[in-house]
Amino acid sequence: MKSRFKGLNLHLLVLCLFLVGLIALPACGGSSDNGKTVIRVAYQQFGPPPYYEQEWWTRVKQQVEAANPKIELQLQPIIADEGSYYTKLALQLRSNNPPDIVREDSFLISSDVTAGYLTPLDDYINSWPDYKQQWFPSMQKITTFNNKNYGIMDGTDVRGIWYNKDIFQKAGLPTDWQPKTWADILTAARAVKAKVPGVVPMNLYSGIPMDEASTMQGFEMLLYGTKDPLYNYDTNKWIASSKGFQDALDFVKQVYSSSSLLGPTNDIALNTQAGNTIAQQLMPQGKLAIDIDGSWLPGSWQKGGAAEWPAWQKTLGVAKMPTQNGQDPQYVTLSGGWAYSISANSKHKSDAFNIIKTAFNKDNLAFYDVKASQITPRKDVADVADYKNLPLSDFFTGLVAVTQFRPGFPAYPKISVEIDRAMQNVMQGQSSSDAMNAFYNAVKSIAGDDKVEKRG
């Protein structure tokens, strides 16, 4: 009797799995009941509306389906915050039926390529003249891994120097300020300290609590203005000890010197909320003179932002971050941003790329970049009237030509933490040479002795 019920249960289980498969089939197959080819696009959606990705792809869906009656474009927003989005997307990408088109953080493309999730796009790109002609070279390079391209950037960000013109005027500094060297920045900060009491002279994100903001907005904006980057693409090794690295730490040390403090006090600087304190309190309140920070800050000050500040455009100036001694290319910035890629397991790669071409044509990408206040990766979008009307669009788009980006290798997140640790160590009194030596040893343990090099 037990064996009969055991067999019956097994048959019921198989039948249930079969029925579940039938129910799920339209969501994971390559065609719908009406015989159309189904292409699915996945992207993040989180928080209250408006949802600019959804608006953009709804527009694209209408165009694609009108021009291609045998194509059905299904929009599949992943409802998740940023960290959860990565997790949910990875689960979909490793399945046998992933979305065809996926939105990727450009920084994580190399990890997803290494995991086998993404399709190289070079063969498709070579037959699409717009890409080579219109995307800034830096925006093509940021999605390239092992000499193959895996994504098309939909927008980017850059970093520069924000400064308070009212404070500068009180300090006897020019209100059209453009430093030519690191020394010029420190000189301006010291002038503010001497002549404008009650004001923080400058902010440079530093230390472990601010995580990647310390690394990218802080340290790498310095390091990439020297002759020594973080990674040597010719030798495929991390440059974990160099003059440029030590010079960058020395700059941090000068900003946070206890005897002549130019930066925020530790209760602000070494706090996970430092970014909010800077952008939503110190800057709108006129209590910070100089801030090395991102192009996205005005989002907090615009109507409906976290710290509405109608006077920000009148009060603040922006300047390019100079290289250490003004050497070519004279200025530096770093970029991140998002791209769209094609899943390695997509059964309709050619159709998927044709849809990407439609989504990323001049008019459609301009629609998205203006809606989302993105810095465009596409040169001709920069000339669209609505885009040019965005605050500081010309200034920030101009920085894309000299932008750098983080080495997108799996070891980077751990190495980034060690950069933050080295910064925090010099903030708290350690010598730059000792902090760099500790960093060098840490990188060897993370990446392996054969993946690390020193420069004199």
Automatic annotation (TrEMBL):
Coiled coil: none
InterPro entries: Bact_solute-bd_prot1, SBP
Gene3D superfamilies associated with the record: Periplasmic binding protein-like II
Domain of life: Bacteria
Listed name of the protein: Extracellular solute-binding protein family 1
Pfam families for this protein: SBP_bac_1
Organism of provenance: Ktedonobacter racemifer DSM 44963
